[in-house]
Write a structure and sequence with these properties.
Helices cover 85% and strands 0% of the residues. It is mainly alpha-helical. Helix 2 packs antiparallel against helix 3 and helix 2 runs parallel beside helix 4.
């Protein structure tokens, strides 16, 4: 009877050790692989996706901006900021065709991502302002 308990305890410990080993091995493999570098095709695909997302975002922004009847100065400033970021992102997307080196594409990609994040942040802040005023 005691032998079965000891055998099953050992089997259980081995199973737990195997599970831990596989989890650690997978994490280690991900670290060793590193970040995959983007190819020219990846950048081109990003540009096409971003153009579609920007068009949808612009439509959404126009609808939401139209719902603000009397914008305050702060809301006007945020609206101008969003409009500026949209124009800036369009400019960056148009610049893609002139890029020839990987380094230039990486820089372009980072500028686009940063501008998109800033644009969305300004958009959220703008409509949080409107919600706060509606609550008062």
């Amino acid at each position: 009877m005691k032998t079965r308990t000891i055998v099953w305890t050992i089997v259980g410990i081995l199973v737990v050790a195997a599970i831990i080993f596989t989890i650690i091995a997978r994490r280690g493999a991900a670290v060793l692989e590193g970040k995959r570098t983007m190819t020219e095709e990846d950048y081109r695909d990003y540009k096409m996706r971003e153009e579609k997302r920007l068009a949808k975002f612009e439509e959404r922004y126009q609808r939401r901006a139209g719902s603000i009847s009397n914008p305050t100065e702060a809301e006007k400033a945020k609206m101008d900021e969003v409009t500026t970021k949209i124009a800036q992102l369009k400019t960056y997307l148009a610049e893609y065709e002139g890029l020839t080196t990987d380094e230039a594409r990486k820089e372009w990609y980072e500028k686009c991502r940063t501008t998109e994040k800033e644009m969305k942040k300004a958009f959220r802040e703008l409509f949080r302002m409107g919600e706060e005023e509606g609550e008062e």
